[in-house]
Amino acid sequence: MSEIIVVKIGTSSLTDPSTGNLALSTIAALIETLTHLRTSGHRVILVSSGAVGVGCARLGLRERPRSMALKQAVAAVGQGRLMRIYDDLFTSLQQPIAQVLLTRSDLMQRSRYLNAYNTFQELLRLGVIPVVNENDTVAIDELKFGDNDTLSARVASLLEADWLFLLTDVDRLYSADPRNNPDAQPINLVKQIDELAELQVETGDRGSQWGTGGMVTKIAAARIATAAGVRTVITEGRSPRNITKILQGEALGTHFEPQPQPNKARKRWIAHALVPVGQLYLDNGAVAAIAQAGKSLLAAGITEVKGEFHASDAVLLCDAIGREIARGIVNYSSAELQKIIGRQSAEIPTILGYVGAETVVHRDNLVLSS
Ligand SMILES: Nc1ncnc2c1ncn2[C@@H]1O[C@H](COP(=O)(O)OP(=O)(O)O)[C@@H](O)[C@H]1O
Ligand SMILES: N[C@@H](CCC(=O)OP(=O)(O)O)C(=O)O
């Protein structure tokens, strides 16, 4: 069966943390594995970190730069070097690759999102393995994914991938950071991300010396990907051949089960076919509830309504500065919404004089834009 497989490898697996030199045997094994998957009929995308780490090693810098300008300059040095190595090694196996550098804005605007989607599809159709990274050299803070775990999850969602592998320097997720907690318990299967809060899993707030985000960003990535129906696995970068074993059913790493997608076709229709006729501006709490927690939109989180529309029309949901974050079908007209924005759901029947829907846009009728 041909599957779409996104593999993300972190700096901590690509380089030797003490010297900053490339971990050549890991990279070679990764390239052999991905090429083998491709020639077996799968569509493969590699999301590779390492531009900053490799750039630092090339320039003799011994720690990750703090200033934005230096980081961007170093990434420009490292990205070229990284691609040179990938291209040499993949070419020795006759596997064509492509460099795809993205910023968050590329997946935020509908037209650019579709453009990115079409380019990926064309590359995959040509049998190419796209090698993706954040466009660190030009991305400004507000328009960054910020870490490649999130970037890989967004790419996996964009392509409706079957698998997302997050390769890192630990073999799986533990109940606490195994570096500092020798008693930390391994976690093999996560059926619902919210289980982790119940299990009180500690993720720290940063990773290894060269990594970004540690487990926090991997779990955030697993949330995005599994919500889009992508099975996500955290496993060890040092053994890329484990990817093949996992695909064959071996229980390695931590598996996050994909959430059922009963509304997939409907959501695709909302995202692609409907023309939005109004705009709802949301406060930060509502943006987080929708984008991170997968919740419905309530009147309390809306700050402004633009355009004239009826109930059941499609609208854009925007953040405070007007960036599109989602699209959805509204349960109220613009005239009704003008009366109830910012108000608690319990107040709505009194304000409108009748009992309407509890949500303004139900999550089944809401599709994130990036
Ligand atoms: N609960 C946990 N389970 C496993 N690893 C954890 C946990 N909490 C924090 N970590 C740390 O996360 C690190 C991996 O993150 P990071 O360095 O950002 O890797 P990468 O470069 O692969 O993205 C591990 O080395 C580990 O120390
Ligand atoms: N885009 C950056 C990587 C950022 C990042 O998420 O790094 P990592 O935690 O090592 O996956 C780079 O190429 O250095």
From TrEMBL:
Pfam families named among the record's database cross-references: AA_kinase (PF00696), PUA (PF01472)
Q: Which reaction does it catalyse?
A: L-glutamate + ATP = L-glutamyl 5-phosphate + ADP
Gene Ontology terms: biological process: L-proline biosynthetic process
Binding-site list for ATP = 8, 168-169, 212-218
- Detail which positions bind substrate: 49, 136, 148
Subcellular location, in the record's words?
Cytoplasm
* The protein's enzyme class: transferase
Please list the coiled coil stretches.
none
Q: In which pathway does it act?
A: Amino-acid biosynthesis; L-proline biosynthesis; L-glutamate 5-semialdehyde from L-glutamate: step 1/2
| EC number annotated for this UniProt entry | 2.7.2.11
Which UniProt keywords are given for this protein, alphabetically ordered? Amino-acid biosynthesis, ATP-binding, Cytoplasm, Kinase, Nucleotide-binding, Proline biosynthesis, Transferase
Which superkingdom is the protein from? Bacteria
List residues of the PUA domain: 278-361
Q: What GO CC terms are in its UniProt record?
A: cytosol
- Listed GO MF terms: ATP binding; glutamate 5-kinase activity; RNA binding
Does Transferase show up as a keyword for this record? yes
By sequence similarity, the record places it as follows: Belongs to the glutamate 5-kinase family.
PANTHER family attached to this UniProt entry: GLUTAMATE 5-KINASE
Briefly state the protein's biological role.
Catalyzes the transfer of a phosphate group to glutamate to form L-glutamate 5-phosphate.
Name of the protein described by the UniProt record: Glutamate 5-kinase
**Organism whose genome encodes this protein:** Aerosakkonema funiforme FACHB-1375
The organism's taxonomy opens as: Bacteria, Bacillati, Cyanobacteriota, Cyanophyceae, Oscillatoriophycideae
